[in-house]
Amino acid sequence: MAPKKQHEPKPKDTIVERDHTINLHKRLHGITFKKRAPRAIREIRKFAKQHMFTNDVRIDAELNKHIWATGVRNVPFRVRVRLSRRRNPDEEADEEMYTHVSLVHPENGFKGLQTEKVTA
């Protein structure tokens, strides 16, 4: 049996942009109606933190309006977002990087979409 290759971990301080589809339906199953939209925002924040390895997550106003557009109860089942890890312009900030989450409108629905690296 061949020895396992040791892969080096990717640096978490590089600037990266990726498009993801977040299934909010499964993340909000069983949540009280009046708490669904706030929980959806928290779940998007948690998803971004998990995938981009930053504690500072900033959600775009357009994405927030899209989540809340149909009210507190009727959150969209899926949402396509662009996660971009950026350098923090504030010099005294605790973290060097932050994640900006913005809305991406899919042209033909969500079928067959994969996570895509966005070329800058």
Descriptive labels:
120 residues; alpha+beta; 3 helices; 5 strands; 25% strand; globular
Question: How would you sum up this structure in a few lines?
Answer:
The protein is about 25% helix and about 25% strand. It has about 120 residues and is of the alpha+beta class.
Question: Could you walk me through the main structural features you see in this protein, from its secondary elements to its overall organization?
Answer:
This protein has helices at 24-27, 36-52, 61-68; strands spanning 16-23, 57-59, 78-87, 97-103, 116-117. The chain has 120 residues and is α+β, with helices and mostly antiparallel strands. The termini are far apart.
Lay out the secondary structure.
Elements: E1 16-23, H1 24-27, H2 36-52, E2 57-59, H3 61-68, E3 78-87, E4 97-103, E5 116-117
Parallel strand pairs: 2-4
Antiparallel strand pairs: 1-3, 1-5, 3-4
Order of helices and strands: EHHEHEEE
Mean pLDDT: 92
Strand order, main sheet: write it out: 2-4-3-1-5
Number of helices: 3
Low-confidence stretches: none
Task: Indicate the overall shape.
Answer: globular
Quick one: biggest sheet? 5 strands, mixed
Classify the secondary structure makeup into a structural class.
alpha+beta
Helical content band = 10-25%
Cα-atom radius of gyration: 17 Å
Distance between the termini: 41 Å
* Total count of strands: 5
Strand content: 25-35%
